[in-house]
């Protein structure tokens, strides 16, 4: 008898330990259905990845969210909504999206952008945007004759800023007396840049400059050495851009290799 009692007690203790272990793996039991803690962990990771880290104060609300989802899912299943063709199609689309996202994440992890790649990209940026910056004004008109008249008026003593406000067709600069602020030559169309870089500080084009926008009269107010952001400042942006380029090429390669009939 004593042995039987000890056996029953041991069994009860074992079952109790199993129950405690099971409870540790679930955040709740809803209508007899366990709600695994893994769901809460997954949602926590999802929020953190989206830039919304979960604090201890947020955990009760997050737990309630998981429980409510289980309640709603059970209600949907009781109506047979999980058996409909529309539901199955949406689940398949979601499954595809998750799997594809995992594929791209795996590729990016296995093919990180190197510091050498980032440096090379920054060097190209510096070469294209280095050199001189120009503080420039212009007056944009529709015809060559109008441009020649503006130049004549300026030579007679007309004020560049006043004429720009009254006659320039460039809405972005006319109100500011034709001011285009500081910019590198690569910021403008080639015809404009070629004429601008030939001018010294205080000089104006002596003949109209034609571009796709119309006819320009250009004046350089100042010149300075270009001030570029450092490589450290641009590194995150360059790394992201290169990663996107690599991922785009990976996608294109996969599509090119696929046998589609």
From TrEMBL:
Its EC number is 5.2.1.8. This is peptidylprolyl isomerase. InterPro entries: PPIase_dom_sf (IPR046357), PPIase_PpiC (IPR000297), PrsA_foldase (IPR050245), Trigger_fact/SurA_dom_sf (IPR027304). GO terms for molecular function: peptidyl-prolyl cis-trans isomerase activity. Belongs to the PpiC/parvulin rotamase family. Residues 1-24 form the signal peptide. Residues 131-222 form the PpiC domain. The keyword Isomerase applies. It catalyses: [protein]-peptidylproline (omega=180) = [protein]-peptidylproline (omega=0). Keywords: Isomerase, Rotamase, Signal. The keyword Transmembrane does not apply.
